[in-house]
């Protein structure tokens, strides 16, 4: 392909794969163009083109009818016999937020003429914006610090200008505002001061985009005293109606990690669905049991609660056991509360299918995975699961420590239009229970999977072997592709070219080819693709593998791989040392991409105990994406019409021995078009991607109906049963601590937000922030995110620094007092020294 014949309107880079071809001279020319049905403006997109078996030079063009004009995506003369390429392009912002446009693909030669026109959806790209405050809750008179961050869909920083940023109080009154807030490095830091007597409640930071859309972030203003310790209640999340005992553990830990000495009291209650009367107070609402005791050396107390009192097998109650626990600190009398609950379920065990396809291909193993769990959702390990297919095929599999069993079933003898796989736990039906309207009975949940046969006129198939594990960034995934190629499909062709695409976030990210030489390989086997795993294909990689046969049949398969939610900018944060004395020096060490701008925050753990917040995490950032994966031709309220069907094929009746028979047409089979549609790909082609459809004729049976024999069943169910006992292992661990050396300090600096800074990373990719540890005896929680024009956004894990000394005095005071009021000031001496000292 000469440069003088290459015309691409949008300054795109064209990469071609020149492919060998050895088809017979009678093979007809074929073309296929693949394009996501959803196109975002101002975003790098790709369109993939395949041309094979050309016998003359052709002109390939793709034109988008966009904003009243024809915009050329491709306009090129192709003289090679075979070509495969994916071409990048970009569209400018549209006048409307969402619009249906049309693309026309034309292949024109001296004797060839192919034209196809189809609709696509064009939407304007929106920046990904989030707001971060230094903490979730504030006292009157404190300063609210916040950041606004803007990223594109590839998580690269955008220097966006927000026409308006403002603060709303709980009554929606606007208190403060900033106009033309300009971001640099993808972020901006702002602040405002609360008055000494503000309205209490939920306030909101609102950032308004130029498009008119708004992003809001809430925070609370309250009068509070920070908790010195945390009360946690540990109990199973789920129990079954067969459980006779329930272990409840209540623990109290100071924010600096030491146990709380004090008195524990807790109640276990099961509420009635409907209170009968109001005569007896709390007894009308629930059945309760109470426990109390002193905390042990670990700050905990444990009780084994008998469930008989709560009548788990009776109806008329809520299906929850609630626990409310209180710990009263010794000497000070400070009392804090913790709560938890256990769901009550009738399900004793259940088996579910995971990573299993919805259709099978005769001759290629059917891959799947089952998971066996108990009623609480805990995996049942080392359990034998038997999967059997009616007709004789039986296989035993053992669950791993996660309760999962991976299986592969032989489908070479399967030719049913649908197959049902049923999975049942062992022991089902061995127990006999009485059924009564006021009682509930145990339930052993079954799993069922209905499979449909995949359509291929030549019985040629591809199958991408699925993976149950999440692909890790920085690795190279080995993707196994099983294939069956029959002479009806490939004829005398000896070199088969397989094409593959990888889509993520609704965009074609990777493409390539694999050439299979049938002189050296079997027509029934497996080949391997190497898939580099990076942040660009997270969080879900949709993989398509296909080939076009000389018969014009398209043999294809697709699958999805879960990918770790990672970022190209690798950020690491650490304290040195990780524990120190109040008022001592420490270092906060950063590692990130060179020349990054990092925003760091460190707050007192007590703040997060007072009011939990939605953590800034990889999941929360990825959830900002408008598209994680395409599915069908649906996006929000927008729906694209199906491609029109080809002309139908009349049903031809068969007369045998004077009896007229109508063909059986299976309507539930999937075809290559359904694969492309499921991935959200529009296809322009002269190949056969759709199963033919048949015309109804007068006085004939409808398409999809036909004669069947009573001796032939439509589905052969498979069964799986547990056949071995359950084994469990328990791991016990103990922690030991070594007291710090005694240091005398005067403590007077007690911030709630310790660090709120912007840090520039050096050209070597690191930075060091010198800090002084505040005087609060607590644990400080810190995290950072960084932005780079080269590698984009990155996020560090949350790290901790424990500020502690073995001997100190803590004052217990109310939030406020009135001038002239008398109140009790309590001072607590904490002594964790191993030797005596003079005080």
From TrEMBL:
Alpha-2-macroglobulin domain segment(s): 753-839
Domain of life assignment: Eukaryota
GO molecular function: serine-type endopeptidase inhibitor activity
Gene3D superfamilies associated with the record: 2.20.130.20, 2.60.40.1930, 2.60.40.1940, Immunoglobulins
Keywords annotated in UniProt: Glycoprotein, Protease inhibitor, Serine protease inhibitor, Signal, Thioester bond
Keyword Nucleotide-binding set for record: no
Stretch forming the signal peptide: 1-23
Pfam families in the record: A2M (PF00207), A2M_BRD (PF07703), MG2 (PF01835), MG3 (PF17791), MG4 (PF17789)
Ranges where the Alpha-2-macroglobulin bait region domain occurs: 462-610
InterPro entries: A2M/Complement_sys, A2M_N_BRD, Ig-like_fold, Ig_E-set, Macroglobln_a2, MG2, MG3, MG4
Record family assignment: Belongs to the protease inhibitor I39 (alpha-2-macroglobulin) family.
Quaternary state and interactors: Homotetramer; disulfide-linked.
This protein's name: Alpha-2-macroglobulin
